[in-house]
Amino acid sequence: MKRENGFLLLYGSSYSDQNIYYMTKFLSNDPFLCIVSNNFKRKFVYLPEMEIDRAKKEAKFDKISSYNNYNLDELFKKYKDADVAFGKMITDILHEEGIYIVSVMRNFPSFLYKILEKEGISIDTIKNPFEMIRRKKTKQEVEYILKAQKAAEDALITVKKILERSIIKKDYIYYNHSRLTSEYIKAVIEKRLLDNDAFCEGLICSSGVDSADPHSVGRGPIKCGKPIVIDIFPRLMTERYFSDMTRTFVKGEADDKFIEMYNVVLDAQNIAFKMLKPNASCRDIHLSVCEYFESLGYDTIKKNKKINEGFIHTTGHGVGLDIHEPPFIGDNDNFLIEGDVVTIEPGLYYKNIGGIRIEDIVFIKKEGFVNLSNASKDFVIP
Amino acid sequence: MKRENGFLLLYGSSYSDQNIYYMTKFLSNDPFLCIVSNNFKRKFVYLPEMEIDRAKKEAKFDKISSYNNYNLDELFKKYKDADVAFGKMITDILHEEGIYIVSVMRNFPSFLYKILEKEGISIDTIKNPFEMIRRKKTKQEVEYILKAQKAAEDALITVKKILERSIIKKDYIYYNHSRLTSEYIKAVIEKRLLDNDAFCEGLICSSGVDSADPHSVGRGPIKCGKPIVIDIFPRLMTERYFSDMTRTFVKGEADDKFIEMYNVVLDAQNIAFKMLKPNASCRDIHLSVCEYFESLGYDTIKKNKKINEGFIHTTGHGVGLDIHEPPFIGDNDNFLIEGDVVTIEPGLYYKNIGGIRIEDIVFIKKEGFVNLSNASKDFVIP
């Protein structure tokens, strides 16, 4: 590694920065340093002494070195500032390795950036070099996503059973003699996810007018005859991959208006499905969905960016180690590639009645796509 | 807000950046922009249109504005780069507000930093201005931490019952006719935490030689007579605060060596406890713990930074919205203040036999401290 260029400097926690996890496959709550050759083939990692043995056991690196070898403690005592000391240590590491030019990603902390620059390191800020490689999911990655998806479906089946077994009294839904609430359903889902080694932070079960806000997590008793939007995006605790699925139910009887909306959303999803294949334009997919909604008189963000009713979000997004990752299926220049895993999630939202969303997760393959979601699309639960 | 200085620019996801959550109390998976006056009294938030209504409902801001008002979509179409477009939008927002000088935190993304600089914004990178205010926990915050701690204790009681009811056959532990594993215990803990609206990402139940690595999460069947280290650091799903607790058990009979180690760790913890009060030096506390271990012949990082056996980590850390936050009770210049919530967690680790750690979480008050942990410190479970 002497006198070489072409290295990328990564710094962060692999719990929160998925590029670092993708590259290192080493989980650490505390931020750490990793130097990667630009072809991603060689990886050098620098960690607190206490993490060295675990890194040797749990991950594969070309070099694992302790901060102790670079006297981080002494640097800290000298500069009395942990960030400054860390910046100096990085400089020492780079000098030792003969690296004077490094790339960093756009989210590299500006303070560390300035220290390195001041120390004479030439820094090139680059666009996410992992974007395309992370988009093209391997068989293993698809299996992980499918495992997360199965966890979501398993949880959804339990919720459906609860809704089926519930009874209606004066507009409210009762299960086991108690009023059914968003909180109860979320607790049930969370437990079923855990049975499958998955968890979902920010799980959505919103009902009635609450569901008109796509990101409302939902609270309180659930009424019959109103939409119940359940959006489950579980992450595997061990393998770290996500899936993402939404289903909307109505308990009891649904107004014609809701049934019409539900069918329109379902049709909109099918319009997107028909366009899914490598090289398909994300803009075309999203605009086709919008145009379909508009042809039936529903407002969309295509026609009017400022709306807060109708189809008010994009059609989908990539899913993997991040819950929202490229490609984004909206009005942009993304094109699908073989290996993409994306959601297709049209929805309609109205402040005074609520929202309906149907979301599947699909894998883009040479000949088109495979729907990784296997959950039924029943809407009305009698 | 015209022609004013003294503003801090925050940008990130409030799920991953706790300073942003602390300031906004608004949860969003996607990064967003917040401008805060330097006295933290005025807060202006900028969000995608879709989040506006939820922000109005869920949080309190002096101004909530949509990216639409700043034509983010048009900027994106013009620059064909989401980060560049976002940087330009921030510049426009700052210009509109008459702000030409802003502070950013050290982790502010370097790419955005450079765009703002190029656009003529004068940027001052500052050390975390929330550090002291976040350290000084309010009554409400202590209640949240206590709630998380109760969830941890509730889970631990369940684990103890399982260990009590287990039987030993040929070195292994059996519960309900099955070999007891780390995975099983972790699943039990996770479910009990969920019952209390809490979850723990990276939960530790390591046993035998695995427990010699303080951060090993543990796996596989558990043997009798060997340490079982259970480290639970649950976060409240709604209120977002953490607690942190570790207990070590031995099922069956413990060697004298383990009993001696356990008592030494317990005594070390008590040595730290006796020093806890406002203005106590974190260095003094940590070094006193190290000296006690060394006086009994146990190696520590005080004497030898390069060790990987003995007492190989620091004595404790602050806990709040982050699981590891200031103050750090190690060889540094931190002093405790009234309102700190910190862990005291001495431990001894040996590669060929395993580890023992005892961790309590305490609140520093005027007269000393309150131990927020109420879990028993039984070691051997017959």
Automatic annotation (TrEMBL), chains A, B:
InterPro entries: Creatin/AminoP/Spt16_N (IPR029149), Creatinase/aminopeptidase-like (IPR036005), Pept_M24 (IPR000994), Peptidase_M24B (IPR050659). One of its GO terms (molecular function) is aminopeptidase activity. Keywords: Aminopeptidase, Hydrolase, Protease. Pfam families: Peptidase_M24 (PF00557). The keyword Transmembrane helix does not apply. It comes from the Archaea. Residues 144-365 form the Peptidase M24 domain. This is Aminopeptidase P family protein. It comes from Methanoliparum thermophilum.
